[in-house]
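ingest -> validate -> predict -> emit
validate: passed (alphabet ok, no gaps, 44 aa)
predict: started
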Amino acid sequence: MPLEETAGDSASFIGTATTLIRLGGFTLLTDPNFLHRGQWSYFG
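emit:
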């Protein structure tokens, strides 16, 4: 269920602390529990 939507942009609450944000051609999934404390995510 979108929280807010403007011209193709949206923010959708998925559950707990997870939110899917779409702005233009960019998509961001927030999930603060995706990694364990102290772990690093290496991009590329």
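Residues 1-33 form one domain.
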